[in-house]
Structure formats: C-alpha cells, structure tokens
Amino acid sequence: MKIVIAGAGAVGTHLAKMLSHQDHEIILIDSDEEKLKLIDSHLDLLTIVGSSSSIKDLKEANVKKADLFIAVTQSEEVNITSSLLAKKLGAKRTIARINNQEYLIPENKDFLNSLGIDEFVYPERLAAKEVINYLSRSGTRQMYEFSGGKLLLYGIKISSKSVVMDKTMAEVSQITGDNDFRAVAIKREDQTIIPRGHNRFMRGDLVFVISKAESIDRVMMLAGKQKYKIKKAMILGGSRIGFKTASELEQNLDLKLLEIDKNKSIKLADALDRTLVINGDGRDLDLLREEGIHKMDAFVAVTGNSETNILACLLASKMGVKRTIAEVENIDYIDLADSIGVGAMINKKLLAASYIYRFTMDADVQHCKWLTVSDAEVIELVAQANSKITMGKLKDIDFPEDANIGGIIRGDQGIIAMGDTQIQEGDQVVVFTLPSAIKKVEKIFK
User: What does the alpha-carbon distance between residue 426 and residue 408 come to, in Å, rounded to a whole number?
Assistant: First the structure.
C-alpha cells in the first residue's frame, strides 16, 4: 500500500515507525527539515520537506497514487485542508486528525465526508474514552470492550494472593474447569509472552485476559484482586482529556478537577455542571490533603506534562488512592512508570496510531488497539468466506506462534476461543498478536 503521512509530530512519527515494518511504501511530509533528517536515518521511508496544504508539495509526494493519505499535523485546519486537497488530487482514502468535537456531529461529519474526508481521528476523545473505561472496571488495566461488551479484554497484575501464581496455564484450566475466560498474553518485565499450556503465571506478571462480562469478578478473584466501587475521583489537569472525562462522568461520580491556570479554571467551572473545579497546583501536597485526596477512590492525572502526571499518581497512591491513571505521552517513560507502580496509563499518540493503523490492513478489521505497556496489538477481524481461518478447528489450523485467538463474537453472543472452536464466515474474531505475526494473521483471515 502507498501511504502519505502529513506531519512528523508524535502521532505521525509513531505511525510511520509502525507502518515501515509492514512492507508499505511510506512518504512522510513535514516543513521541519531537521526532524525529517532524524526520522530518515532510522526508518525505511521517503521524506519530503514541504507543506501538506501546498498543491505543489502534494504533487511532489505523488499523492494522486496514494492508497491512503493521513493528515496528523498539530494544526486541525491544515489537516482538513490537506485531506480535501489530497482527495481532489486522487488519493483513494483520507484521514484527518481533529481537535474539535463539532466535526463529529453527524451532519457536520456527513458534510465533510461528502467533500472528501473519509475518516477523522480525535486523540483526546479516544484518551477520554480510555480513562472512562478504566474507571468503570476497578482492579483492571487496559480495559477494552468488543461489540458493546460481549467480550472484554483487560490486564490484571498477579499478586502474592493469587491462586494461579506459579501454576501453568494447563493447571489453571483444570482448576477453573470453565470456558468463560482465557489468558492471551503475559507482560513480564520487558517481555511480552504469547502463552501456551506450559507457561507459568508469576508474581508481578501483567496478564491480558479475554472474558465475558459476567466472568470478570471470577478472574479478579483468581488473580488475588479485590473489587471496589469508584464513587469519588480527582482529576488533575483541565486539558481536553480532563474536561471530556469530567463531562462524561460528573452525573455518576463525585468529581473534583484541579487546574493551575486561573482563566481556564473559570471556563471549566462554567462549562461543567456538577464537577467542583479548583484553581491550584496538583503537585502541592498540602492542597491535595486539603481537598481530601485520601478520601478519593481514583486519581486521574492528564496535564500536558508526563513527569508531573507520573509523580502525581505516585503521590496519590502513597496517600491511599486505590486507582490511579496517568497520561504518559513520552513513550520512553511508559515501561519505567509501569515498573514503579504508577497504575493505568494512556498515551494519545498510541491510541491515535492504533485507530488509524486498522485502515492500512488488507483484512476486514473492525477494531485495532496497540496496548500501552506491551509490544502487542489486539485486533478484531471479520472472517471472510473461504478464508483459511474457517477451514477447520482452531487446533488444526497452522496459526502463528506469536499470536493468539482470544474470542469470537457471533451475532449477539460472545464465545471464548478453545482448540475445538471452529470459526465461521462473518464471525468477528479477537486476535492478540505481536508485530511479527500481523501479516501472517491478515493472510489467514483474507
């Protein structure tokens, strides 16, 4: 596939890195020559110094032959303009990054679709949705729902209280004796393991599980986790993520939002109905104590500074908050933050890149998500007629070793995948895969 990416910022660079390993022809266009030189020295792609809103520069990028044009610059206006131009010049499909909720209102979206923008990606909206998912299921990490909750994917840390610690997957299967959940990956230190029957669960492992909604309590019990209800939460940072999260949750939770900028605090207080907005520095321990952080069930740090968010979550955890969520935009900090117990983490560029990535795949992909603290990706694919995946029971199909089928959505039913399961045409199949297996998985489903 020929893909033109406009914008060598965090999202564009990460997306280019992901795609450059998948046999695509990638062209990256940006006005910053030094930034492009650095990227060019590390990735196998073509870079062009120029403006994505310039017809001349788009023609130089040969956008007329592009299968996909992705505009992810920092400017919403540039993204919209360049996507419209790219479509008129011949690009088959266009995607624009936006920062404004109004473009997702159906009539506005339909209008822009008619002009030539096929898809929109709004990273802050994706991040807010992620935060809301995390807060809805206590004790889990990386919560993700498929088909309205028919199947759930979540990560759970194995504690010393867990009955599965030091047991193999085969032994755990004998203990549980049911088919309502399945471990599809294990994150151990800096390694992501696609587990088989002989693999053991060890203390500190982050285990990714596919299950039905009704089985989550049982999985938590096996992992040594206690369920608790989140009633009170504190949000640090009045960013678009913080505002969106508060506006979605304030009807159901007792919320406090801390914002250091006085003018922004006033605007937030006017815009939010039931959230108490406090103008102050969330790094001030005395202020946190005064505002009752020790009484909070959850603490969400979504300022524009990764270091501040990490430190604030560590402080909140030390002061007794059970659930902490940090926005960590510096990818290099993610593993470190996980190892020191920050809690759940979100990263806008990973979320945006995952959302866009599914449009680059040959198979019929419904959803795609790159998991923040692992090297793996979870993909929801639709099984096509006469595809290899439908040709027999899963145990008889030569499925890649570095990938795992977790579950199937068939009609309104969620099914946990087992060796005797046979996938049918039209099934939505949840696959957990390492980057090395993505192309192999696509071929099996085509």
Answer: 10
80: CB partners within 8 A, 6+ apart: 71, 96, 98, 112, 117
Q: What DSSP state is assigned to residue 422? A: B
8 Å CB contact between 52 and 73 = yes
Residue 98 gets which letter from DSSP? -
- Side chain identity at residue 141, one-letter code: R
Q: What is the pTM of this model?
A: 0.85
Q: What is the mean pLDDT of residues 93-117?
A: 93
Q: Are 185 and 376 in contact (CB under 8 A)?
A: yes
Q: Residue 95, class by beta-carbon neighbours within 10 Å (0-12 exposed, 13-18 middle, 19+ buried)? A: buried
What pLDDT was estimated at residue 139? 66
Secondary structure (3-state) at 57:
helix
Around Cβ 366, how many Cβ atoms within 10 Å? 15
Distance, CA of 17 to CA of 248 (rounded, Å)? 33
Q: Which long-range contacts (CB under 8 A, 24 or more apart) does 46-49 make?
A: 47/8
Tokens, residue 24: 């695509």
Q: Are 297 and 228 in contact (CB under 8 A)?
A: yes
Percentage of residues in the chain having pLDDT higher than 90: 57
Residue whose pair of structure tokens reads 């209102």 in the numeric block? 105
Per-residue confidence (pLDDT) for residue 21, from 0 to 100? 74
pLDDT of residue 56: 96
Cβ-in-10-Å burial (0-12, 13-18, 19+) of 345 comes to buried
265: closest CA among 292, 288, 238? 238
The band of 115, judged by pLDDT with boundaries at 50, 70 and 90, is very high
- pLDDT tens for 118-168 read 999 999 999 999 899 888 776 676 778 887 788 988 888 888 888 889 999
Residues 192, 375 contacting (CB under 8 angstroms)? yes
In order of start, what are the domains of the chain with their CATH numbers? 2-121 (3.40.50.720), 133-222 (3.30.70.1450), 230-321 (3.40.50.720), 352-445 (3.30.70.1450)
Task: Identify residue 98 by its one-letter amino acid code.
Answer: I
Q: What are phi and psi of 260, to 5 degrees?
A: -75, -25
